[in-house]
Amino acid sequence: MANKRTKAVGSRSAKRIKVTANNVSKVKTNKDAQPLIQPRHLRGRRGSLRDMPAMPLDILFEVFVYLEPMDLLNLARTSKPFKQLLVDRTAARFWRAARENIKGLPDCPSFLSEPAYANLCFDAHCHNCLKPNIQTVHWEVKARYCQPCMNEVYYCFVSPESIDAYGDNPLPDPDNLLGWDVPYSIRRHKLSVKAIMEAWRQTPAENRAEFRIEYTARRKQLLAFASDYEKWFEMRKKARSKEIEETRQDRFNSVEQRLRDLGYGEDLDYACRLYRSGIHPLLKIPRVVQARPLTTRGWKNMEAEVLGVMDGIRATRLQKERLAAITRRIKKLGEALVPWRRTVGPITPYTQELLLMPEVSSLIDAPTTSEPTEEDFSTLEKGFYNFSSQWRNRGCSKLSQMVRSKIALPSDVDVFSLAVSQYFYCVRCAKVRYGYDSDAATYPNILVHRCLWESRSFPAPEDTYEGIIARLEGGVPRTLDTLQSLADKARPVIEACDQDPARVTVDEMDALDIRLRCTGSCQEDGVYTVYTWCAAIEHTICGYECGTGQPSWEKVPLEYLADVATLEEIARLNREARRMDFIEHWFCSHCPRTFNFKWYSYAKRTRSSLVEHLRKEHDIDNPTELDMYYDPRQYDRVKPVYFIRKGLDLNPHRFLRAQTASRMGEVKWVDASWFDSLQA
């Protein structure tokens, strides 16, 4: 077996042990261990003041005049000769000269020596455990204590009989010294109280009154001096805080100047405006807010971190400027689109879709240094016509496929001229709002159905052009995939009118002198409901009115159609009046238009308020249909009319629609014989 190789004693790889206060007794003083003692880091040249005690006294005295009390105190602690020199009573003049170097410092009180006064005022350590940075001076005991030592060297005691005396008279009754169970307590220094009580006991009874007066006078003198010292200390603390703040501000200004020299001037100005009511990002960097002058070395240490923060501020500034430029240009585009929209009508592509056109995005997202003019936007009008035509053709093709998937149609027929293909519904509305197929709309208004632009979809990152447009315009338009054709539900109604759903057009259905009555479970005794073919389709769509079953239809006898026509005319006039003066869905054709939520809630008006708007804002006294338009996204249902037996109680829980129609005058009240003749 090979011998193990041993390391030579004193070699470079020999183990060294660090000597601490806990293991100093365990370290062996042999050659196998080399204690490692870390030298204390001192500023300046080591040993440069070792010859100071040997200096002539006149030179030392001249030096002492320029020192402060804390300097003399530290000097007295360096060696015995200096201690003997500075704590002697004859050295009081040096301490007084040192005190004069401190502005506003009160004179040394009679109950303290000069070294003790300097130690109490300037050496901020706990006088019990030597913990540093203790700023509170307890003048009643002439010492500084940290909070843990306060609980150790103080106790609370008082008696109900001596509570008043303890405020002005520090000498309580010795028999009630430990009255812990009383609701009052005053903190008193243990050693001081013991000394006072001992002196009190040793004082003869006839001299105690004099002792009390003398002690009270000393205590008042102490408290008066404590008040003067506290005022000076607060003044000194404020001055020091101001000095530190000025140093930090100078350092920050130096950092700011270096950044401006590097080309970050605009970013600094933006940061000052942005964070005027908050914290500047640079002030969150610890090296920037240090209370020391900025040096070249200090700048090199913080340069990478500071430039990283400034690059982030620059990116934010450029993004904000880009957003402001895009918003400003979109407004110009909206003004340029007004004549074009008046020509093509309200059913046009969404603003979001127009903004994503390549020729439009090149102008909207151009560099902020080059601002597009109104002439640049006006040249896009031809492209808007082409894009609008392509957009409508794509929508019609998609909707046509939906209709043909529901009903077989000849290949040569115009799908959207047929009555069966007029109605669609949105799956999103049915699911989100009602839970049934209720939100129907007709062609071509379905191309701008509200669910297609009430979008909360933001697929692109917000720092891209698409993401910015999505956030400015309330999202991106949805596709037509959320729509479905209702041709299968319109077919039974058309067949009930003895027409071919694959051939009959809308105009032909309107020309028919036919009205229908539902024979489903929705009918009530004493109420006879008459539907047009459009109202019948809508009743079929809202299948909940007939319960779980599908409605079935029969023709209304011809002899009742004259009364039906009268009621339908009243209903039409009511519907027109409601659209004119009660519904805020009218828009101005002369104002720039977009279909985000903020614009929609701001721009919609009643017709009468819109007429007033045209008169005030556009100087149009007699507006025409070209000056205003009704929101194509809103769909007004075609309601039926009613024949109701006289005396029937229209309970709103059973006859809500009939009761509403009755208030609007869309009901004819008939005798019971009318219903008998109808059944006959």
Automatic annotation (TrEMBL):
Domain (F-box): residue spans on this chain: 49-98
Pfam hit, one: F-box-like
Protein name in the entry: F-box domain-containing protein
Organism: Somion occarium
